[in-house]
Each structure stands twice: as C-alpha cells, then as structure tokens.
Specification:
It is built from eleven helices and eleven strands. It is of the alpha/beta class and about 300 residues long. It has a single domain, classed as Alpha-Beta Barrel (TIM Barrel). Helix 4 runs parallel beside helix 5 (about 115-130), helix 5 (about 115-130) runs parallel beside helix 6 and helix 9 (about 210-220) packs parallel to helix 10 (about 245-260).
Length: about 300
C-alpha cells in the first residue's frame, strides 16, 4: 500500500464562505442543478464560488464511465429531465453571467450520448442570455460524428474536451477512453471553426517529456487553449498521487506550450479545466466579458 503523501505548502487551501458563496449555492439548489465543484470535490470551490463562479453539471450526476481519478458517481443514470436546459439558462440569467462553462457526465447508454440535451442547453442559454458567451466541456461521444456535429452546430464560443493524461497512462486513468479518439474530437471541432480547449492532470505518473510530447500533439492539430494542474486524490478508492509537481515545473510547461504554438496555456498546481475561463476568453478575444462566470455542468435526473 502506497504511503499517503503530505501536501506541500503551495497546495494547502483555506475554505471560506462569503455572501457570494451563499447566494450561488441558493440559486443552484433552487433550480435543481448539480455542480462539478461539489460532485468532483474541486479544491477551488471556495475561491470560485466566493467570486460568483460555479461549475454546474448537465445530464445528471451519475456517469456511465469509471475513470480512476474522478469522484462523480458511476452507474446506470436515471432518465434525464428535458426541462433542465431551461433551468440552466434561467440560472445563468439570475447570476447575470457574461461567460458560462457547461460540461456533463458521459451518457454512453443514450443513442445520441446526450447531444440533444447539449444542443438544447446551448440554445436555451443563448435565447435567455444573448450577451453571454458559452463554453462547453464535452465528452468524447464514443468518437461518433453525429453527436459531436449536434454540439458544433449549436455554435458554442469555446469547445473543450479534456485528454486528461498522457497516452501511456490511459488504460489506468481512462480505461473506457482512447487518446487518439480524444484528439480526433478536438481536431474535428477545430476543422469546423471552433475555438478549442483541452487539459490534463499532472502527478499521475507521467514524465516531463511525455507532457511535452502531448503538447506537441495538441499544437499540431491547432488546439487554442491548454490547461494543466495537479491531480489530487478525491477518495481512497481513487488513483493515488504519484508526485506533487513543483510550481516551477508548471511555469516551464506554460513557457514550452506557448512556444510550440498553443495560444494560451493555463498551468499551475490548482488549475482545473474551467479555472480562469473568463480570463482566457478575454485573452483570446481581446475584449472583457464584463461579468461573472459560471462553469455549468448540466445535471439531469
């Protein structure tokens, strides 16, 4: 049994609650939504919620896959709620958001892998919030083109899909996924005019050179935004942390990735997929979004 590793000082987080946190929590609960912040035990919940930023979840809080790093429940999901896209759009309106990030669990049991709900959510958010930019963090849809096309046709402002780790570790970290499939999702999205984004976790056993090679793969297919942060074991049942990556190494990944041609690299111990998402949009567009952000993982059920 691997001994428990003590978190270094740069990963010690103080959890604090303010009025923004309480108000956001109320809106999420009143609209019967799920949040990735809670389900995936994100270390940034206190900071983000305190700024009026949340990560909501669509298509329920039960995933059909069993990734070794993820705290979201695995199993047979219940029937999804077709009113959820409207509830998400209403929550975005109540929070007065200018940028929203939407993600979901995998719904491999559905014929369209949930893409109908994805498209409806983007459309409903746009209808009620025409000034809000929309970022989506999607699953791989098992590599099937039609569900991906359904999301692309809804024209989100940013399309993200996380590769999560280096190819060598896929069997252990993402046993029901394929690295090449994830690359194809990003490549096809880019070829169809999307601004693309992906990310990985560090500290799962990857080497420095493997991360550099992965970034080269992403730059070769035109990925725009890349995020990399420290993996933190959510429970004892999940994969252990192999090492804590020093902030200096994260700084080197940022420098190297942007030299390769990635337009923006968000790299640091506490970076997560949607961390500083609004700032990334502003950097890419050159214009401020003008309001708070929510990272919305649509919850169905």
């Amino acid at each position: 049994m691997q001994p428990k590793r003590t978190r270094p000082d740069w990963l010690k987080i103080r959890f604090a609650v303010n009025d923004n946190f309480r108000e956001l929590h109320r809106i999420v609960k009143d609209n019967a939504l799920h949040t990735v912040c809670e389900e995936a035990r994100c270390p940034n919940q206190s900071e983000c919620w305190g700024k009026g930023t949340a990560t909501l979840m669509i298509l329920g809080d039960v995933c059909t896959r069993s990734c070794g790093f993820c705290a979201v429940k695995t199993g047979r999901p219940p029937q999804y709620d077709r009113q959820e896209p409207y509830r998400v759009a209403l929550a975005v309106q109540k929070m007065n958001l200018r940028h929203v990030v939407i993600t979901s669990v995998n719904r491999d049991e559905l014929p369209d892998q949930g893409s109908e709900v994805w498209a409806a959510t983007i459309e409903q958010v746009r209808q009620l919030n025409p000034a809000t930019s929309v970022e989506v963090l999607i699953p791989d849809f098992k590599g099937v083109w039609e569900p991906l096309k359904h999301v692309i046709d809804a024209r989100p402002d940013i399309l993200a899909h996380n590769v999560e780790t280096v190819p060598r570790l896929y069997r252990r970290v993402r046993p029901q996924a394929k690295y090449e499939r994830s690359l194809r999702v990003l490549e096809q999205s880019k070829l169809h005019g999307m601004t693309t984004k992906t990310g990985i976790m560090a500290g799962l056993g990857e080497t420095y050179d493997e991360v550099l090679a992965l970034m080269q793969d992403l730059a070769a297919i035109g990925v725009d935004i890349f995020t990399i942060g420290q993996y933190l074991q959510p429970t004892k049942r999940h994969l252990p942390v192999e090492r804590f990556v020093h902030p200096d190494e994260f700084a080197e990944y940022k420098r190297a990735g942007e030299e390769m041609g990635l337009k923006h690299v968000e790299s640091g111990p506490l970076v997560r997929s949607s961390y500083h998402a609004q700032e990334q949009v502003e950097k890419m567009s050159g214009a401020p979004c003008g309001g708070p952000i929510a990272n919305v993982r649509l919850g169905v059920g």
